[in-house]
Amino acid sequence: MDYRGRFAPSPTGPLHAGSLVAALASWLDARAHEGRWLVRIEDVDGPRCQPGTDRLILDQLARCGLLPDEAPVWQSQRDALYEKALQQLVDAGLAYGCVCTRADIQRAVEAAGRATERHGELVYPGTCRTGLHGRAARAWRLLTASSGSIEWQDRRLGAQQQDLEAEVGDFVLRRADGLWAYQLAVVIDDAEQGITDIVRGEDLADNTPRQLWLQRQLGLNPPRYLHTPLVLGQNGEKLSKQNGAQALDLDDPLAALRSAGLALGLRVEADSVADWLAAAVQAWRGMMPPLNFAVFDEDRTP
Ligand code: GLU
Questions:
Q1: Does any ligand 1 atom lie closer than 6 A to the CB of residue 200?
Q2: Residue 72 needs a FRET pair 20 to 30 A away by CA distance; which of 61, 101, 123, 209 works?
Q3: How far does residue 19's CA lie from ligand 1's centre (Å)?
């Protein structure tokens, strides 16, 4: 299987030190495996995106010498793919329409005497599993009833496990505002683009079981996963656009690469961006255990 990796930024703000780490790691891993590296602009959540930020991110990457091997794609232009996948799931009885508002969910959860929360979100109690009784669907959810314990092997974090139904519940594929959920778009695009390896920040690690489950429901091959360490700000919190992380200063791309490298445990010195990247690929090769497709295939067996 030829290696295909990707970096998939949401254009909600320019790259910051944390997102450069994820971009660099995915690029290094693709180069170290003589694979291809793609960039996908994840702009499904239109209202959260800032106009022009997509181009700015591509420019920031280019300044760091991180050039995609194929033309970037924009999720906002791929509605038809997501629509088709949702229809397939609904037709197979694996996804269902939901009429519940936040308040409905709150009430149902309280009535059942359990209030399982995850990242401030209530675990959906499955109210609409039995049908809409004539009402129009607001959102669409994926059934997790038979998911059991989802187990997977992260190349850095090791063995991971999540009981999807209890810990997350039937999750949203299409939101009540009509927007596609990240989970659906990312799974469809990774499959459609033939991505074999996902290298991204550790903050996304706990989305992986949902994505593995969705892949399984759609009959898609799962990629391998490697979640990179997060870069913490001075306040000890994860750097993110939401908590006001500074955009990268790319007047000195070599300095930005050097600090992104350090976050990945790479101590590389060079005088130019091109030399730094070449040396970093060598260092990355030395650091990463070889990929093992066999182990990965075993993980797929339900
Ligand atoms: N678009 C997501 C983000 O910027 C990343 C998605 C992924 O790598 O799976 O956080």
A1: yes
A2: 209
A3: 9
